[in-house]
Amino acid sequence: MQLHAKQTRNSRYRWSHSAEKIDGGFILLDMGAFQACWKAHRSGDLRLVDIRVWLAVVEILEQRRLAKSRKRPLFRLEELATLIGSASLRTVRSSVRRLERACLLTWNERNLRLHRGDVMRTGRPYVPVPRRLLKWLANSGSKSDIATAIATCDSCLFFWSKEKRVESGGYSKSGEVSARYGISERSVKRSRTKLKKIGWLAAVSDGRAGGRTGARFTADVTWQRSDLSPQRNRNYTVLSPPKEDQITPFGRKYQEPPAADRGAKLRSAPDLRRVIVNDLKSPARVNRLYEQCVRARLIKPSEAGRLKVFAAAERALRCGTTNPAGLFVAVIRKRLWHHISQRDEDRGRDAMRRSLGPTSRRRTSNRPSNPPMTCRRSVRDLIAASLQSAAGSEKPDTQIASTRRKNEQQLVSFSHDEQRNTGPGHGSSAGCHDGRATRGLPTGGQIDPV
Contact 449/385 with Cβ under 8 angstroms? Predict the structure, then answer.
């Protein structure tokens, strides 16, 4: 490989790398088929894993072409799963079915074909893509990585079939890549930085900033993946280090205690951002958590809100098997009150009473009890008779005072007799000899009006 400067009409110098081949080989990728696959992905018919499976199918077809075997090749899903780095055959099978529904692939054990679809091809029909880069994209490439790498190959890699050489170097503009593949410019620049980091892409720094043509880039035709670890010899046994080795301490020495031991020690005050199991077991600490919920505007300050917090704590202790504290926080923050049962609410009410202390008894009212109905009627009759007498004839003051004193004594004795007769063990007419329902009245049943 040699580096040379080539003078053109549009620019003074064009830096490019010329080589006879690309290490690891390359594939002439059909851009019409790739654009059809990308269009199905943008419309929602395909997922990202489906594009990676499609790239892996291109690699498998190239392997079968270079094998030149007379035997009929076999295509298995295990080989696809190895190329995309997935351990689930179900994922690979689902991706193949989606590609078949999009009319981009035909798959069976004896036949494997790719279809272009009905997408209008733009640019070059075939683009050289290094096989090592294709495997890396199929194994761990993101959406922006795949789009940026294929666009860079389209603009920076050229294969001259007559001269049988490959030329690396060209212009690439992030805005054009963004508009062509439907990704943001920031994602394109991030993917370029990633490709530079792994050593496949390099920017040409000749003092000229990329204008309308974009920046200048070159692709390394001798690139090899550095993230692949070398194969290890599996025929040797590894001995464990001695106990005196401080790199791997023996037992639980210098190690963090397990989660159960860390949660056993209570903190000075509970914290809603870091709830432990022992906070839920203490009614006083649950009450503190309720106050924090009120300050965070998760619950309204009321007795009903306090009961919800205590019931959520009982629900978390009863149903939380692996993370009761997480269940409690989820019920509070997401307001999952419909998960709380009547049993949790009853237990929460008991815990709330214990946290608030002994309840005070109701104070007895000092207001006297209502007088009996018969006494009320007598008072009304007394008032009516008094008004009638005042309107008809007036009496001397001494006679009015004596009559009023006499009526008050009769009312007091009447009320005592009524309360004694209506007590426990007595009927409504007990102690009456003349068949009347009251006692203590005069024989005529008349009260002198005032």
Answer: yes
Residue pair 136/195 in contact (Cβ under 8 Å)? The answer is no
SS3 assignment, position 3: strand
Q: Which helix (H) or strand (E) element contains residue 320?
A: none
Q: Is the CB of residue 177 less than 8 Å from the CB of residue 25?
A: no
Does the reported pTM lie above 0.70? no
Q: Where are the beta strands (DSSP E) in 181-278?
A: 201-203, 215-219
Can you give the pLDDT at residue 375?
55
- Judged by DSSP in three states, 88 sits in coil
Q: How many CA atoms lie within 13 A of 176 on its CB side?
A: 14
Q: Where are the domains of the chain?
A: 2-219, 260-356, 392-424+435-450
pLDDT at 133 over 90: yes
Other CB atoms within a 10 A radius of the CB of residue 61 amount to 16
Q: What is the CA radius of gyration of the chain?
A: 47
With CA atoms as reference, report the closest residue to 186 among 202, 199, 200, 175.
175
Question: At which residue do the structure tokens 């990633």 appear?
Answer: 194
Cβ pair 48, 41 in contact under 8 A: yes
The answer to whether 219 and 132 are in contact (CB under 8 A) is: no
pLDDT tens-digit readout, 322-373: 899 999 999 999 989 999 999 999 999 999 888 887 654 444 445 444 555 5
Place of tokens 């009450």: 287
| DSSP labels, 276-301 | -HHHHH-HHHHHHHHHHHHHTTSS-S
In which band, very low, low, confident or very high, does the pLDDT at 15 lie, cut at 50, 70 and 90? Answer: low
Confidence at residue 130, expressed as pLDDT on a 0 to 100 scale: 93
Phi-psi category of residue 390: left, alpha or beta, with phi > 0 → left and psi -120 to 50 → alpha: alpha
Place of tokens 């464990």: 240
Percent share of the chain, pLDDT over 70: 65
Least Cα distance to 2 among 14, 23, 20, 27 occurs for: 20
Greater pLDDT, 219 or 383: 219
Residue 167, beta-bridge partner list: 18, 158
Structure tokens at 94: 């689902």
What b/e sequence results for 174-202 when a residue is b if at least 16 CB atoms lie within 10 Å of its CB, and e otherwise? beebbebbebeeebbeebbebbeeeebbb
Neighbours of 376 (CB within 10 A): 11
List pLDDT tens digits, range 405-417.
Answer: 666 676 666 556 6
**Count of other CB atoms within 10 angstroms of residue 415:** 16
What are the C-alpha distances in Å from 378 to residues 207, 297, 382, 447, 449? 117, 60, 6, 9, 12
Residue 235: pLDDT over 80 = no
pLDDT digits (tens, 9 = 90+) for 393-404: 544 555 556 666
